[in-house]
Please model this.
Amino acid sequence: MDISIHMSTLPQDDPDAAVAFYRDVLGFEVRSDVGQGKMRWITVGPADQPGTSILLAPPAVDPGVTEAERRTIAEMMAKGTYGWILLATKHLDSTFEKIQAGDAEVVQEPTEQPYGVRDCAFRDPAGNLIRIQELR
Model:
């Protein structure tokens, strides 16, 4: 089989803040922005990796999601426990400094983990956890 990771999805509840974070702070390109108002599906990704993207989508828009489930999702997003993604860079310290300078919420400064990786963590405007590992 020839399977690759094409796209992963994270929830966003403020499209303009999401674009500002992923484009202006992380440096990703915006590949598409479909919809209007808060109902926008935004595809972003690294310019040098055109085959790998993140879809920033409104949460709980599936018609099968109940009102109780929508409330739970909104509560989890507010706590930062709903969505997360793991990114990587060869230059963790300088990446951390650039993201921190972009006023991102720092969860963890660069740290050597007991499981053998060095990483840091931030939250995006929707509360999603963004972990960034150092490539060695």
Summary: The chain has a mean pLDDT of 95. The helical segments are 15-25, 67-79, 92-101. The two ends are 28 Å apart (CA to CA). The longest helix spans residues 67-79.
